[in-house]
C-alpha cells in the first residue's frame, strides 16, 4: 500500500487531506479585499479570475459525475489545445459577481466536490469512468488530482503575483508528479517534430525516480528504468517538475545533450 499514490485507493485520504489544505490556502489568499484585483502569474487574470476559473472547472466536474452516475457518457471531448481560450472566456464571464458571493460559491463547490470524492468506494476510485470536458473519459481518482492542480497551482499563481519569494508545497508536488507525465502526453504540439528520440527524466520526492522517455510518431511513452546510455537526462525536484509542466517556470538541470533536452521541453503547449 502506498498512501502517496493517488491512483490507488490507499492514497485517497492523503490526497483529499492535501487538497483541503491547499483550498484553505487559496481561500485565505483570495479573501483579502486588496487581493481581488491584484495580478497573478496567469496573464490577464487577477485573483478574481482565478477564483472564477476554479468555480467553472469544479462545476464542470459535477456535470461529469452526473453523467457517469446516469450512465450517459458524452462522445468526444473539447480537447486541451483549445482549453486556454475557453477557460478564459468562462472565467471572464463571471467578473460581475461580487467578491464574497463568488468566494462563497467556490467554497460551496469545494465542499460538494469533497463529498463526492469522499463517497467513492474502493471499486469506484479507479473503476468509475467520469467524462472530463476537455480530456474525455477519466478514472474518478483523476478528479481529486484535478482539484489539487486547481488549488495548489493556482495558489502559487496568486502568490507569484505578489512579487514575494515563495514555493510549492512538497506534499502537493509529490502527489502531482505522476500526473505530470500524463499531462505531457496530452499536450504535445500538433506541429511538433516527432522524429524518434529518447532521454531520461529524474524526479525527486516520494513519487519520483528515474524514467526512460521515448518520443516518436505515436507520441510520448515513459516507464521507470535505468537512464544509463541515454543522451540526455533532465533532473527535477517535484515542485519544479509540476511548475515546468504547467508552464509556470523553465526549470530542471540538464545532464548530457542540451539540444535533446531543449527539443523535449519544447514539444508541449502549456496550459
TrEMBL record:
- Fetch the SUPFAM superfamilies from UniProt: DinB/YfiT-like putative metalloenzymes
Name recorded for this polypeptide: Mycothiol-dependent maleylpyruvate isomerase metal-binding domain-containing protein
Record the organism: Nonomuraea rosea
Q: Secretion signal: which residues?
A: none
InterPro entries xref list: DinB/YfiT-like, Maleyloyr_isom, MDMPI_metal-binding
Q: Where is the Mycothiol-dependent maleylpyruvate isomerase metal-binding domain?
A: 20-159
The record's Pfam families line, in alphabetical order, gives: MDMPI_N (PF11716)
Highest taxon of the lineage: Bacteria
Amino acid at each position: 500500500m502506498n498512501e502517496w499514490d493517488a491512483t490507488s485507493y490507499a492514497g485517497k485520504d492523503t490526497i483529499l487531506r492535501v487538497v483541503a489544505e491547499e483550498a484553505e490556502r487559496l481561500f485565505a489568499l483570495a479573501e483579502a479585499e486588496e487581493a481581488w484585483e491584484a495580478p497573478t502569474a496567469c496573464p490577464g487574470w487577477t485573483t478574481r479570475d482565478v477564483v472564477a476559473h476554479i468555480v467553472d472547472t469544479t462545476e464542470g466536474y459535477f456535470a461529469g459525475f452526473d453523467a457517469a452516475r446516469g450512465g450517459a457518457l458524452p462522445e468526444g471531448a473539447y480537447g486541451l489545445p483549445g482549453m486556454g481560450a475557453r477557460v478564459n472566456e468562462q472565467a471572464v464571464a463571471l467578473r460581475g459577481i461580487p467578491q464574497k458571493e463568488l468566494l462563497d460559491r467556490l467554497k460551496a463547490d469545494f465542499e460538494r466536490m469533497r463529498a463526492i470524492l469522499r463517497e467513492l468506494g474502493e471499486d469506484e476510485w479507479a473503476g468509475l469512468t467520469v467524462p472530463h470536458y476537455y480530456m474525455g473519459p477519466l478514472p474518478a481518482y483523476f478528479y481529486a488530482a484535478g482539484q489539487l492542480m486547481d488549488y495548489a497551482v493556482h495558489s502559487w499563481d496568486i502568490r507569484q503575483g505578489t512579487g514575494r519569494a515563495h514555493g510549492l508545497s512538497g506534499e502537493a508536488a509529490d502527489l502531482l508528479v505522476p500526473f505530470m507525465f500524463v499531462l505531457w502526453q496530452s499536450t504535445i504540439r500538433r506541429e511538433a517534430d516527432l522524429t524518434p528520440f529518447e532521454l531520461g527524466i529524474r524526479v525527486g520526492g516520494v513519487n519520483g525516480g528515474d524514467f526512460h522517455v521515448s518520443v516518436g510518431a505515436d507520441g510520448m511513452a515513459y516507464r521507470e528504468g535505468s537512464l544509463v546510455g541515454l543522451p540526455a537526462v533532465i533532473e527535477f525536484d517535484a515542485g519544479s517538475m509540476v511548475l515546468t509542466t504547467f508552464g509556470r517556470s523553465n526549470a530542471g538541470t540538464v545532464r548530457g545533450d542540451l539540444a535533446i533536452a531543449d527539443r523535449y521541453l519544447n514539444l508541449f503547449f502549456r496550459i
